[in-house]
Design goal:
With 211 residues, the chain is of the alpha+beta class. The chain contains four helices and eight strands. The protein has helices at residues 5-12, 22-30, 113-116, 133-208; strands spanning 32-37, 42-44, 52-58, 61-67, 72-79, 84-85, 99-102, 106-112. A four-stranded antiparallel β-sheet has the order 1-8-3-6. It has a four-stranded antiparallel β-sheet with strand order 2-7-4-5, with no helix packed on it. Helix 1 crosses helix 2 (22-30).
């Protein structure tokens, strides 16, 4: 597709293309095509092999993952304008880790990764970057993955803290139940002993009076 000013601005504002010079963005746009997908259509299916990345220009998609043990699909996230889908394929050609389905009519910019690898030229040294385009993309993906890992680690820590608090609460509740049962058991034993002692006293009294 022929690059336009709006398209260049759109890519430039995306983290995946951070630091790329205008001529690099123009090269990428020449390899890009736009597609329109109706609502409730799969763009990517989990475990399939795909050699493309997608950028949401307009619309919304849902990310979901299948639980093999229950055969149920679980919602992971909702992505809107500007989100990049499938950028991990820049690092490897492994199967997709989740499914992507449109929740409304969506316009996507599609870029074949094999074609991105063919861009070998670098911009002039007076530009922001003098590194090859594909190298810059890999660098940006790695940076984004690092941010996600830090966020995920924080979420895991918070989850573990909550789980620990819940475990402490369950332990405290268990102790309270044990103590309560012990008190009830002690109370019942004391009542039985009291009744037994009362009966013994009455029995002794009834025998000693005639004597």
């Amino acid at each position: 597709m022929e690059p336009t000013k709006d398209q260049l601005t759109f890519l430039r504002d995306n983290d995946l293309f951070h630091g790329l010079a205008t001529e690099q963005l123009e090269q990428i746009l020449t390899l890009t095509k736009e597609i329109r997908v109706e609502a409730n259509q799969f763009i990517i299916r989990e475990n399939e092999i795909s050699n493309a990345l997608y950028i949401i220009k307009e619309g919304e998609v849902e990310i979901s993952k299948l639980d093999p043990s229950t055969d149920l699909s679980h919602h992971l996230a909702t992505l809107k304008r500007g989100a990049v889908i499938g950028e991990i394929a820049l690092l490897d050609n492994g199967p997709r880790s989740a499914s992507v389905r449109t929740t409304e009519p969506t316009t996507l910019m599609v870029i074949a990764i094999d074609q991105l690898r063919t861009i070998t030229s670098t911009p002039e040294k007076n530009h922001i970057s003098n590194k090859p385009t594909y190298f810059m993309l890999l660098q940006n993906v790695a940076s984004k993955l690092g941010e996600r890992m830090r966020t995920a680690n924080d979420a895991v820590i918070e989850g573990l803290k909550k789980e620990l608090e819940q475990t402490k609460a369950r332990v405290a509740m268990g102790r309270m139940i044990v103590y309560t049962l012990a008190l009830i058991s002690s109370y019942i034993i004391i009542l039985q002993l009291t009744k037994f002692l009362n009966l013994q006293t009455i029995s002794t009294s009834s025998i000693s009076i005639p004597i």
